[in-house]
Structures are given as C-alpha cells and as structure tokens.
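Lab notebook, bench 4. We co-purified these components, and the gel suggests they stay together. Before we commit to crystallization screens, I want a quick structural picture of the whole thing.
Request: model the full complex, all chains together.
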Amino acid sequence: MPVYEAPLRDMRFVIHELLEVDKYQNLPIFSEAPADIIDAVLEEGAKVAQEILFPLNQVGHEEGCTFKDGEVTTPTGFKEAFAEYREGGWVGLAGNAEYGGQGLPVFLGTAMGEMTCSANLAFEMYSGLTTGACAAIDAHGTEEQKSFYLPRMYSGEWTGTMNLTEPHCGTDLGQMRTKAEPQDDGSYSISGTKIFISAGDHDMAENIIHLVLAKIPGGPKGIKGVSLFIVPKVHSDSEGNLGERNGVSAGSIEHKMGINGNATCVLNYDNAKGWLLGREHKGMEAMFVMMNAARLGVGMQGLALSEISYQNAVLYANDRLQGRSLSGVKEPEKAADPIIVHPDVRRMLMTMRSFNEGARAFTAWVAVNLDLSRAEQNEEARQVAEDLVTLVTPVVKAHVTDVGFECANIGQQCLGGHGYIREHGMEQYVRDARIAQLYEGTNGIQALDLVGRKMPAHMGRLLRAFFHPVDNFIQENADNKEMAEFVMPLAKGFARLQQAVAWLGEQGMKDVEQAAAGATDFQRMFGTVALGFMWARMAKVAQAKLAAGTDEVDFYENKLITARFYMARMMPDTSSLLAKVTSGKDTLMALDAAAF
Amino acid sequence: MPVYEAPLRDMRFVIHELLEVDKYQNLPIFSEAPADIIDAVLEEGAKVAQEILFPLNQVGHEEGCTFKDGEVTTPTGFKEAFAEYREGGWVGLAGNAEYGGQGLPVFLGTAMGEMTCSANLAFEMYSGLTTGACAAIDAHGTEEQKSFYLPRMYSGEWTGTMNLTEPHCGTDLGQMRTKAEPQDDGSYSISGTKIFISAGDHDMAENIIHLVLAKIPGGPKGIKGVSLFIVPKVHSDSEGNLGERNGVSAGSIEHKMGINGNATCVLNYDNAKGWLLGREHKGMEAMFVMMNAARLGVGMQGLALSEISYQNAVLYANDRLQGRSLSGVKEPEKAADPIIVHPDVRRMLMTMRSFNEGARAFTAWVAVNLDLSRAEQNEEARQVAEDLVTLVTPVVKAHVTDVGFECANIGQQCLGGHGYIREHGMEQYVRDARIAQLYEGTNGIQALDLVGRKMPAHMGRLLRAFFHPVDNFIQENADNKEMAEFVMPLAKGFARLQQAVAWLGEQGMKDVEQAAAGATDFQRMFGTVALGFMWARMAKVAQAKLAAGTDEVDFYENKLITARFYMARMMPDTSSLLAKVTSGKDTLMALDAAAF
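Here is the predicted assembly.
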C-alpha cells in the first residue's frame, strides 16, 4: 500500500529559513500568519491530507466518477470527505476575510495545495476550482455578487468551476461560440457547449457556480468580444434557498488517462440564466488576473505528484532486496542488499529529491511574491514582486509540471515491473501528473507566453525581477570560497541563460518565429537555472546554520549534498539547451506540412 | 478515431537503400529473402497490422482481459484475430524452416514487429512471447523437443511464455525459489509461483508451452543453480492430442497501467510435470542466447508506439485550427490556421519524426547484424557482427524505449487536452509504451549491462564493432563539403562519447561504482550518437540518390531536412550528458540511505 507523509520540515525550512516570511509581518496578509499560525495550519493540513484525502486516492482512481441520467456520482467516500474538508474551512483558506474566507496568504494556500494534491489530486480539484472561481468573483464581482457567492463558496457549501474550452477551441478562445443574450432583468441567457469542465458536476455540494466565458451578440469579434458570466447550476432566492434547476446540465463525462475521481464534464447551456462578472467584453481580462494563481496551483500539482512518487520509491528502494552493492555486501544477513545501494537507483532518487526540494523553494518564492504583489506598501517593491510573478508564472506551470511528470515516472521506474501494477499506486501518480502539462494552457503555450509576451513586455523590464536577484547573489558570493561549488555552476548556467535571452531578443526582433522555435527549450533552461538559484540560496542558508551550530546537523548537511547533486547532474542541461535554442527555426520549418 | 498506416516506404529505404541487404544474398538466411520477397512480406504484414490488429487496439485497452474461475478471457475479437494471424503464418515468420518456420531473416521479423506493435502491442505479445519461446527451444532443445514443439508453436496452434520473475525476485534471479524435483521417468516435478507472466493464460490457443526457470535441489547456490524447463499447460500424447491439465494454473491477472489486452498472470506450479530444456543448472545460459533477440524486440516496441503516436499527432496538427501563423495568416478562408504552422508544434513533430526514422534505421542495422552473426561464412566478419549486436543490444532496448516513451508523450502533447481523453488513443500509446522501459530488464539494468559487462568484455573488443564504422565514416567523409553539416555534429558527439568511454574506463577500473553512477547517462549518450550515425549515413544515401537523379526528390530532400533537425536539436544532448557522466558518483552516494 502506498504511503504519504507531508514534508513539513522542508516546508518550514523554505518558509521560515529560506524566505524568512517573518520579515513581512508588518504587511497586510502576512500579518495574518505569524510563524506559529503558519506551522499550525501546515500541521493540520498535513493531517487532512494524510488521513482524509490520501486513503481515498486509489479508490478514486479505480472507481472513477459515474454518469447516469444526467447526474454525476463521485467515488465512494468523496462526498463524506468533502464534508469534513469543508467543515475544516480549507476551501476558503486564502479567501478574502471580509466575505468569510480565512484571509491567509497565498503561500500558505499553495503549501496546503502541495499536500492535498499529493494525497489526492482528483479530490483537490473540486476545492481548487472553487478557490479559483472565488478569486475571479473577489477580483471582479460587484459588492452584491461578492457578499452573496463568496461566503457560500469559501465554506464549500457551493463549489465553483471555470468554463473556457469548447469542442473546436481551447487555446484560441477567440473562436468561441457560446452566446449570452442580454435580458430585460439585467441577466443574460446563455447557450452553448463547454467541454473539459473539471468538477463540472458532482454530488458533493448542493449548488455549483459556473464561471462561463461567452460572447454577447454584437460585440467585438474574436477574443475581444468575450465576457465572463456567473451561471449557477441551481437557482436560489436572495437568502440562498435553492429553487429550480438552471438551464445547464452535464451531457457526459470524459473517460480520461487519469484524475479519474474528478468529473470532467461536457456542460450544455440551454438558455441558462447568468449574470455578467466584471465588464462587458472584458472576460479575458477577468480571467488573466486569476491566471497567475491558477498556473501556480497547477505547477504545484507537478511537484505534488513527484513528491509522492519519490516517497514511495524511497520506501521500495529501502525494502526491496535485489543484488549486492558493488562496493561490497552491505547486509550479509539478508539474501541480498536493498536496491538503494545501487548508484543508478541513487541517481533516480536524488534526481527526484533535488527537483522536489528545489521546486518547493521556487514555487514558495513565487507564491510569497504573489502575496507581496498585493501587500507591499512600497510601490516600487510591489511592482518588482508583481513583475517576478508575471514573468515566472509560465515557468512554474511548465517546468514544474514537465519535470514533475518525469520524476513521477522515475519513481515508477524504481519499482521495476511492480511500478506498472496498479495496486502499488505509482502508475496513478504518472497518469494523474500527465494532465498538468496539458491543462491551464499547454506547456508549449506557457513557453510562448514566456518568450513572446513576458520577456518583451515593458522593454524587458520583467526579466530584471529575476535577473537582478540572481546576479546580486552571484556577485555577493563571488569571493566566498565555501560557496564556490554552488555559485560557479549557477553562474555558468545563468550566463548561458543570458546568452539565450540575447539571442532570442536579437533574432526574435527580426523574425518572431525564431523566438517561438526556441521557446520550449528556453523555458526548460529558465526553470533549470531558477531551481539552481534556489539550490544555491538553500546551500547558503544551510552553511550558515551549520556554522552557527544546530542540533539538526544532518538536515542541513543533506541540503548541501542535494545541492551538490543538482549542480552536478541537473545544471549541465543548460549547455545542450542553449545549443538547441540558438539552432533556430530552419530545421523545424523546412518540411512541407503535407510531408509529415 | 486513431489511424495507422505502416511506414513501408521508409522500411524499404532502410532495408534496401541504407543497409543494402541485397549484398548478402549469397549467405544463408538472407538468400531466403530476395528483394521482392521482402517487399511482399512487408506489404502483407502491413495489411495484417492495419486491418486485423489495429481495429482491436482500443477494444483491448478498454475491455482488458478478464479472469474468472481460473480462466482468462481475452478482449472481444482477439481470439478470432489470432486465428487469422496464425493462419497467415506470422508467428513462425523467422522460425527455423526445418521445423515448420518460414526461415526468413530476423530483420524482416523485427520490421513486422514494428508494425504489429504499432497496431496492437497487447495482441502482438501473445505471438512475440511464442516466438521467444521457440527461439529457446530451437537453440537448446533436443531433436525430439524441437520436432514436437516447434511446428505446433510456429503455427500458433500452441503459444509460449517465459517464466522468470517471482514475487521476491526479478533482476536478481539467484534468489529464485521455484523447485524442480527429478522424477524417475526423466521428467521433473515443478512447484513454485511465477509472476508477471505475459500471455500466461488465454483462450486463443488450445495449449500453452511455458518455459520455466527453476532450481533442481542440491544444485549450485544462486544463479548458477538455475535450470530451464518446458512445462505445457495441457498434457498431450506423442501425436499432440491433448489430455489432462498439467499442474499449472493462473492464480490471477494483474491490473496494470497498460497493455490491458495482454493477460499478465500469476502462475502457480503445483507439482507440474516438466522437462529439462538444455543443460542442468545452465538455465541462464539458455536464456541469454535468446535475450539479444528479445531485447531487440522490446526496443521495437518503443519505436512502434512513437510511430503511431506521431502519425496521429500529425493528423491532428494538420486538422486542428487554432491561432494564426506568426509569419502571416496561412489559411485566410478558415477561422484559424492548422496548428502545424506553429514552430513549437513543428518542434514536437520533428522530434518524433527524427527519432522514428533514426531508430528504425538503427534497429534494422542491429537486426541485420543479428542475422549476419549467424549467416556470415567469414569467421572474422561473423564475429564483428556478433560483437556489434552484443554491444548495442542494451542500447536498443533502453534508448529506443526511453525516447520512444518520451515521443509517445510528445504526440499526446500535440493534442492538448484532447490527448488526455481515451477515445483519441494517444493516452493508450503512452501507457502501453511505459512497460517497455520496465520489462525484459529495466532500462537501468540495460545501462549497467552496457557499461559493466559489454564494454569491458574481451578487453573492450566489442566497442570496436561500433567505434570502427563510425570512425571510418567520419574519416571517409571528412573532405566531403556536402556532408560537412552532418559529419561535423556527428564527429563532435562521437568525440564526447569517446571521452566518456575513456573516463568510465579509467575511473571504473579504480572504483566500479563510478562507472555504475554514469551508466544511464552514458547509455543515453551512446544511443544519441548511434542515431546520429544512422542519420549521417541516411543523409549520405539521400544525397547520392538526389545527385543521381530520382523521381522521389521530396522523399530524399525530407531525409536531409530531418537529418539536419536531428543534428541541430538532438545531438547537443551529448554535451550535457558528458558533463553528467564525468561528474562521478560522489553526489549520488553521499546521502545516508535512511535520510532519503
């Protein structure tokens, strides 16, 4: 049976020791979460993940959701678990306190997200989509909308969804066909078909608030004519007492590769009553505001599945007796040594470990900056935080889910043939992890967003929010001999990243397809350097702790060991990636489309 | 609905134009397959794959096998399809003609294997395992065993299996517990439990011949005391008329990530009657002889699933309208351009294409050498062929399945969210492809075999069988300006490979864990260079054809385009891989096992 134990010590290391969030205690949002509150929330969250969600993970995978007579039934135990989960107040953890949320920082929500996604991704999405819908209502709703919907959604009494995709359009939403006809009472009548709606229907809450992108007839063509609407599954009176069903219904659920416990619905809108959220024709603007948080959340899913795959691979590697250590028998009293003695098994485990801890630090850094982008009182500092988040959000989404998927597979590989068998759980982590590379904008789209939108924005200003701290760190530690083993590989990788930026800027100016051709490899390179930066910073913290004296010597020594591994085995990728980026578009575009 | 069309033109290019098998017409085996026979077999094979096997691929995935009352039922249509398949003589295609096989070369069998695995891997395995069992009987059986079993198995009347793994041992078979007690009549009584037995039970043939590894009590300890036995599912008289069931039965079937249509069985042996195959205590020797062919076959599975994923990704990329080309609208009359206009989609398709064609050439080269290692009359030439096959077999198995799996995923990625939905087929290819990295020796084991066994063997003699032809090719074309764009990147990658070999040799001599720590990255590097070598050779053939004049200008031009892509985008990996290999074992081994 698979195991899961929330990595609380490492989370505390990242939050308190690496990012030192305590220093922001004077700022709003942060002031809600002093150190003891943070630790208590994480500890309670770990219990929920381990004890309530995780035991249902394989059940959800095996049973999946069922669709009968237009109704979705979630797997055995999900409904009861959701009741417990929402009673704990977890849906509204980082929600606006004015409307019943707990008002805690986003970085705490994403840490919780890692744990819930490790424990049960399919389950987490019912809550995660609700959080996302709340964020949109909070940012764009009228006072009336906020005070009506948010308390009911933060409490989990009602859940939420996001409706973007249609059968013929996903990335290119300008082709959208769903229509919203204005009605005399100020509402809209919405008709059309939406697909891939995660948590689109279920039996765990009495109402579902769909946020739906649709076009108001007569508006601007394409993406500029798209508006966002609130469309409840069930009508209610002003007190929230439920009445008749609205004109929206699930047409079917998809049979998917994974996240079987989450109902991915086709939703049919047939003159459903809806209300405008935000401004007419400004639906994409409303979506984009919440996209940073959503993409950060999806990035966490990649980390989460790598983490649980790692934990179970470690368990197996310590338990499975097969062959003998090349450096001499380690456990002579046993029939063989545990496979963790083998260097190639070590390579696999260290790859996962160095990714998990690096990605945890990176995503937390971004999450803290997301909070700072709202809380910072100094406008310059606030802008820098926002710039960083805006710039690296596609990297978090794409890099952490790409490498997270690879690591979920590496964990499976550690189990050999047993990894292929469902009961061990490893194949579920791989299958569940795969979705994160595809939804919320494919990873190719993330790379294009990074190269084509974020980097050129404001004459390259956003880049500085990442390049300055890396550059400063390298400068500050240039003469630190103890840090040289970390700083030198980082500096090498960073120099390559800068070369790639220069090449993309110069070539992309002449021919934007040159930049697009290098986008994915560049994104990978950026992510590799970003995690390398986090590792160098973590090594510095660990060295300081060891120098100051600590009773956790092993913990900090292991940080240094893992940092060394990352520098030796991961950072070198920047060299081949630079060669790929700068090889340009010609070899990609030369073949006639019909010849493929 | 997914499509599949066998890549016949490319197969003919590889067999006739690149490898020029016609020049071996004077040798046995090859003389059975003149050019027109090869083409006819491939064409018939393509029909079988496309028309009989492929239509059952999704059925097999969705239904899987069922196990009830000790009996396995295969998915709807499998039984009838197998009847057609065996009537076509496909099971014994490369079987010994003296015993009813068709006596065709292995390279033709592996080309057929690519097609059948693309079309329906789960189905192919019933036949593939039979072929493997036949090879063992042909190599080690007595005259009586051969003439009794082979005709019935080549015809597919009876199928075969290989029984190695037990619950507590897979890689380390020395721990085996299954026992074979000698009986007075010369047979053995076999008892024990075997797991992960592909095609271990089913309803498609009236008898199954299990080849079972077991220990004869009193024999040498560990792996040196293992013998191989023939154990039929059903007893028969000397004419092959079936009688009572033998003491072997399926205890259950596994629920797996993929290859759902193939029954992976737990087989319980309870005093089953069996007969020794080959010599007492020399079971592993018997297994190893057939392992080259088996691992080559598994390598083909990686290629096969990448190929079908590619074909369906191409179809989607030409069909799906989303966004506009960055270089200007391509199809103004449509709502959007097909996504194949986007450089990042091109990058994905070209990655798959260059891998597929490169791997097809590489595996065919190895397969031809496997035939030469048996057919060559000149002992020196025969030995070189055998050396090459022995050396690169782990590379074929590991590299082609590793990159094949990555490419199956890339194809899925091209479909965005639709790739995650089962009906599109892409997720099946990913799930099916995953097994090939795990079975027939995990890919980590392949890498260790390459670095720890193959490279040091005979003072490094095997390496020459690969290094000489590459070196010769580079020398021969050093002054060829037209070839410079291919030869230079190849030479760079090859030089790095040689550096890695030197490092591994030197360090591994002092500490074998140094070699083991670099094994997987080295194996990847070797595979990357090997495909690069094939691409350079293919480019040379294409240039010659174009220079000589041809009415297939596009075909050869496209070879050159794809070769350029491989050199620009794949060969650079050798630089980062070299850095990883030479970073050594320290960062892998430093962490205490308990600290993971």
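Chain B touches chain A through 97 residues (CB under 8 Å). Worth comparing against the SEC data before the next meeting. The longest helix of chain B spans residues 283-319.
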